[in-house]
Request: fold
Amino acid sequence: MIAKMQQVNIGIIGLGNVGLGTLEVLAENAGQIALKLGFGLRVAAVCSRSVNQKKIPETLGEVFKSSDWREIVAHPEVDVVAELVGGTSVAAEIIDGAIAHKKSVVTANKELMASCGSEIWDRAIRAGINLAMEASVAGGIPIHAVLREGISGDRVVALYGILNGTSNYILTEMEQRGAAFDEVLAEAQRLGYAEAEPSADVDGFDARSKLAILAALAFGERITPADIFVEGIRRISPLDFEYAHQLGHTIRLICAARQSPEGLFLSVRPALIGSKTIIAGVQGAYNAVWVKGRFGSDTFYYGRGAGALPTGVAVVSDLMRVAREIRHGRPERVSPFAHERLGEYRPQPVTREKCAYYLRFRVDDGPGILAALAGILAEQNVSLEAVLQLPCENKSNLPFVITVEPTYEHAVREAVHKMSSLDFLREPPLALPMEPPL
Amino acid sequence: MIAKMQQVNIGIIGLGNVGLGTLEVLAENAGQIALKLGFGLRVAAVCSRSVNQKKIPETLGEVFKSSDWREIVAHPEVDVVAELVGGTSVAAEIIDGAIAHKKSVVTANKELMASCGSEIWDRAIRAGINLAMEASVAGGIPIHAVLREGISGDRVVALYGILNGTSNYILTEMEQRGAAFDEVLAEAQRLGYAEAEPSADVDGFDARSKLAILAALAFGERITPADIFVEGIRRISPLDFEYAHQLGHTIRLICAARQSPEGLFLSVRPALIGSKTIIAGVQGAYNAVWVKGRFGSDTFYYGRGAGALPTGVAVVSDLMRVAREIRHGRPERVSPFAHERLGEYRPQPVTREKCAYYLRFRVDDGPGILAALAGILAEQNVSLEAVLQLPCENKSNLPFVITVEPTYEHAVREAVHKMSSLDFLREPPLALPMEPPL
Reply:
């Protein structure tokens, strides 16, 4: 029998998917949680705008319910507040309110932590409370625990991620079935895998917020979404998968943070990656993170990117850690966004990055096309690596691909810009980086 | 400038590969470690039988050296002892000595933690010190941090691992080059990838110790190597890869811990796994762990299994965590081997497990062979799934394969035992489980 005074009391604000998943894990796994901690986690209070319509697991016992979050953060029994409402404005008020009441906070909020995580952490540290945010990135993958504890002795030099399940689902469906982007997107929307307004997913903004958080943790640098170059997957066609396969590659929306002597390069964009690399095996709605450390070399982490229960596990694991510190020790005193101290790598524009490129054209066939394109590349000092044209009967919309040796991105962009005015092109060239072997 | 009194002082015992790798990470990453912790880690003392021949990084400053480990655990300045000598007898004395002096302990010792980890943890908890052992399993993969913190809110229902780099290297070389086991082993020995006495690696005993630790952590159950069925890779031939590929599979030495209503099934043995599963992409000397949680579903972790620096990172990350607790809070009070509390899954003999099987035969061809084999399977109530024979000219040593539908392992063993007396068999049948999709 675990004494009641030993319990740590939780207040949960937000009973959407993640909130209900968190309650389910807390209710069904209560016994094991108490055995692992040596004391219990008790759900003392819950909050939702429609709290009376929400099904609270009965085994949780008596739970204070409110539709006003202020009543939760101020509730005298609540030790830890889980902010699971999402968005930025109310969520920021909730976290500030919890900090003001000296309550530790667990959050699943990627937008908020990506845009002002560093400031929130500083306030939390000044108030002497703890903050945890495992669920904010790649719900099912415990990547925060890995960076904070598991490989904390290492120095990260590069981090690559597949951090948006919807776009990865769309890309792998396109790859496997040869279906067009619009078709797969419409289907994903019908199935509920993609939002009616899909921009956050397919244009890379959701992934960008997640990369901002992971890169900040990995490099100890203050990074915001505005530091990250972003490009979505709308221009990828089944054709690009055919060409990529011919080149021994596949295409994924890759979040990249790479340290170099010139600084830190940050991008979210579709890229060619080697078919035999472990990250190429990430199919469907899964997420993955690949980390290269200066000492420990490469490690790779894979799991569900979202979902009520995987994200609920992340929230509960954070609650356990925070509760353990409330019972057994003081919270840590160093912000994971330790930008004032580890600031040796400033984000740099990706135009200064060097990389091999895949350039895909659609042309109205005729003489002199390759000469014209090769001439523009030569002007920019870009060296051709290979030219590839798969059989195609439609000569007025003929695809082909040029790959170029590693070069500065600004040279590729300049070349693509100049090419765009050529009248035989049916659309602007598509330029995708070819990532180094992961 | 970090005040000296704020530092946590480390004593390192054992300056082999891992010890020197740990020193290198501590020396070269000292600045970042101090920034992450808010205080420094200082190497106060080192110990090795030949300590004066060891190169200690000069940036570590003045370090007390001894060839007697007793001087390290008793040294008044040492706060944490890193036991990196390996083996079981001296290592056990060192850890007991450190605990007696109320020093926290970081260890990389898989044999010792596998065989008596539970008892050592209990002693550590009674003494009020902390124990950390990330480096004891899959050096480069922070799987302890994942199980302890990252997914602590989940309930593990299955765990699969590739935990021996040498045997994985041998298997992938056999697969890629079609070379025989003996040939690849001899080459690995020449290159220093395999020991002159390779049994611990190729017969599965090393992997078994690691699985004992991971399964204990994952299931909260006291598990020792003796609870785990073990079979090595010596009988695998290039031929088996050919047949496995035909069946859409590959072969790996799989460590498996699987919960079922009957109990916990634990085994280390070569198994067929689907070629498209993410675990099949683990090549060469890499390690990987795949975890299935009741709530969070599947996650996968991958990295180097060994090596001075990857293992050094694991030791240093543990030192950081233990040091943080020494400075900021008391250690946890619950053993990760919480067998007295979480003991609902007792290990069961694998003979009671149900699985599909791959049976490979080498026969002196003649009439009635399939009928005889099929008859024996029928007697055991084992249903055939497929029969596969690839072209082969040598009719007196003709390989072929039968796969059978999921059945109890004891039935397969009984059938194999009866078959072994058939005079047309050139060698006993090889039976490999076909693991469910990972």
In short: Chain A is about 35% helix and 25% strand. Chain A has a mean pLDDT of 93. The longest strand of chain A covers residues 249-260. The longest helix of chain A spans residues 308-328.
